């Protein structure tokens, strides 16, 4: 039987020294806790609007004035939504069940088992 002394020595050295493994989920480049550098902001001027105390910045009794992009956004968003609904309602049926049903009916009509619904019965 082999000696257990080398295994015990290896176990003692591996538990005595705790090596801190890097956290791969959040590497050091993503952590900015207690950082001395400020984050750089981009833009064309201050982006902070101080609170005015009014809902959406409109005082009671004043009429809200739309911005230039709002009408285009509403028409584009809801218009494309309406077009998508209409396209979905009129899309062709491409399911495998529909194809199989039509193929089975076609083969049964070709073999004479099923009558063609387009032909008129003889009197």
UniProtKB/TrEMBL annotation:
Query: Any stretches that span the bilayer, and where are they?
Result: 72-90
Describe its partners and assembly state.
Complex I is composed of 45 different subunits. Interacts with BCAP31.
Q: Which family does it belong to?
A: Belongs to the complex I NDUFB11 subunit family.
Which compartment or compartments is the protein found in? Mitochondrion inner membrane
What cellular component terms from Gene Ontology apply here? mitochondrial inner membrane
Q: What does this protein do?
A: Accessory subunit of the mitochondrial membrane respiratory chain NADH dehydrogenase (Complex I), that is believed not to be involved in catalysis. Complex I functions in the transfer of electrons from NADH to the respiratory chain. The immediate electron acceptor for the enzyme is believed to be ubiquinone.
Keywords in alphabetical order: Electron transport, Membrane, Mitochondrion, Mitochondrion inner membrane, Respiratory chain, Transit peptide, Transmembrane, Transmembrane helix, Transport
- Species of the source: Didymosphaeria variabile
The molecule here is called: NADH dehydrogenase [ubiquinone] 1 beta subcomplex subunit 11, mitochondrial
What membrane topology is annotated for this entry? Single-pass membrane protein
